[in-house]
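User: Hi! Is it possible to get a structure for several chains at once, not just one? Here's what I have:
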Amino acid sequence: MTAPVLTPITQALNAGVLTRQELKALMVRSDVPALKHLALWIMLVLSTGSLIHLTYGSVWMWAAMFLHGVVLVHHFSLQHECCHYTVFRTRWLNDLVGNICAIIIMLPNRHFRYEHCDHHTYTQLKGDDPELIELPRSLGGYLWYLSSLPYWRSKFTELGRHTFGHLSKEEERFIPKEERQTIFWEARLMLVAYVAIGGFCIATHWWGPVIYWWGPVLLGEPVMRFIRMTEHVGKPNVRDMTENTRTNYVTRPMRFLAWNMNYHAEHHYAASVPFHALPALHEKLKGHVAVESRGYIGAHIDILAQLFGRKHRCDATKGN
Amino acid sequence: MPRERAWRDLIPVAQIYRGDATPVSLGSREFAVFDTDQGITVALARCTHGAANLCDGYFDGTHIECPLHQGLFDARTGVAVAAPARVKLRMILSREVDGMVQVFI
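Assistant: Yes, the chains can be modeled jointly so their relative placement is included. Here is the combined structure:
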């Protein structure tokens, strides 16, 4: 028997939420919006990097490194869009830019692509969604996640595992046999690059990569963890896309940083719609998806309310 | 006893989306009619990787992209050209007769 169609957009089309013509118009690809966004992006990275240079040696340097780090960790948003091939019309540009982002934030691109495919298939389903972030059980668990320490532990373990040619049981499910060597070599090349850069720093006593790159990424990652939690954490562990994902209204600068990925419910509805068309898709899907009008802070108020028992836990089962 | 294969009417040419993919059901089967740069082709509409109807994906006149995972197929030949798609689409022999797209099934 044929498996039922899982794509939410097909369900939305069947429900008459938007027409096929409207959907197809929103899917149109172009290199232009992304190249404009990318030009501003590069200027922003250079600007925040310059702030570190200008404050070098003063106490303000830490603030500048944090600010630069917040920008750098948002390469995740760009890489995420690239892995959907919706940033550029020219498909290979998505691979190129995705791999550059991968190096910047240590998130091997091919592996992320496969992992993310399963995230879209099994969004928010416990035991199946490889990117699922559990609703914490306590304030300690919440702060522990936000510290980024469990994230980095997981990423370094992953890099080491792949370098030695191993996959976890979960990865064996979503990475086909034909692709496993690619995943292993991707990790090895990334590790060699990092070791070479680190070795060069030690040999020359030039700490540029640490001050302008790795240090800021470590300082900025808690902000990315904070944002990633707003996408699904605190939403029910069900397949229904109108319930399991949040769209967050955020300020224009944050939308710029996120490549419009704050329109997360819309993205899950139609992952083939490019980032620049997500606000228009949002207008079409208004009232059909879960929206947090208070933005990222509002999402965390919701998460904390569930955590402190002021609101029903979304993952509670009967008897809990 | 298996049913004999024959040419069957699928959809009038005038009703297909120009330059796009059109979903058509015939009995219990779902087909995708592609108006490609090199003419009309027909395939089974389901992605060979995930449970998705390819007609709802992005089509550029040559390649159809799965709406669920953005795997890519050549709509003229069915060949899977980008991951996670690996298995070829099942293309259906088709022709145009008197303004009607017919399939040999």
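Chain B touches chain A through 21 residues (CB under 8 Å). The first strand of chain B starts at residue 7 and ends at 12.

User: Great, thank you!
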